[in-house]
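Extended Data, record Polymerase
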Amino acid sequence: MRLRISDPWMFSLYALPLFLFPLSTAGSGIAMGLLIIAYAISGHWRNWRQIGARRWYLPWLLLMAWSAIGLLWTSNMFFGQKVTVSTFDAIFAFIGATLPWQERWVKWVIRWFLAGILVNEILAFLMTWKILPWHNTDAIPYTGFCDHIFLSLIIAHAVLWLIYDQKIQWNFSRWINWVLIFLFALQMALTPGRSGQVLLILLLPIALFLLYPGRWRWALPLAGALGALLLLVIPEVRQHLLVGVQELVTFSPTQADVQTSWGIRLVAIWAGALLFWLHPIFGVGTGDFYPAVLHLQAQHLLPATPGFIMNTAANSFLSEAASLGLIGLILFLWVLWAIGKESWQARQTPQGWFVLAYFAIYVIGGLFDSLSWGYADAVNIALFAGMPLLARWSPDPRR
């Protein structure tokens, strides 16, 4: 029996995980469950033929299948099921591809995404100032309930989107966009999220170059680069980046053990490359990255990382390659190529720019974080890929 679920409810449930990711891991998990249940009873899955129009559907199906097959030579099923679940989060892209999108629902989803970041920021300031009795995640000031790395990535995404909306005023008026840009940049400056800070410094000039052709093509990107570099004037940001540089300079593969943040990442990247070299075709198994790393460390082929569970290569591409071999890496690159091509071709549309901005963060950030296996990151890329990138609406202002 098919139950009628109105579009406002359906798209609110689609956006609810995006709203809750900065606020509650458990809440976002419940939201994803509600979305799947609502989708199942709504009957929108009957539009499954629409999935065939999306370039990513075949490689993503094959990657999910290969991840499940990789469990056959996995000894650690705990990590195996975690990786498999992250890969199968692609189901949300398939859900999105069959929904009856309209321009207003794209606006609605993006507003929920921005609202989650804003609510978390307000709570973060109140918690840091001891007005609220709760504690910031990992006792890091101004992070609120969100992991500081993930927070920096979604703030970078939000700023890149708001720069676009600042130009066309499609979702918000100009002054609202400026206020949000200021608030999000302020939180990024106050938190130690080097990943998002570096990505924003890299991507902001490129975004301005793409958005403003003609006589502004070079002036605005240079101004954007200078504006992004102004983050370095802030002592906290400069200190965070200098710590990272110091960790890179002092790292040595001959150390008996490594405990710094970047040192551990370099060991993980090295481990991923070494495991891919040793198991090039099929990989070590969907969930055997950590056991394989322990084996390499026991053989003194890698420095020890005391107290750290290294279950990824700190690199999306090497994580896939080490665990699923060349086959898995090719399928993963195929998925990225398909999403990237769709979002690039739709970059002149609001939803296209929104997805392209996150895609750039996902790909470049994946060079120093395993975003493909990240809980929220894997769901985000799926929800965004499921947006109507093939649709074209006139980007008229709201008013």
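Summary. Residues 94 and 192 are 35 Å apart (CA to CA).
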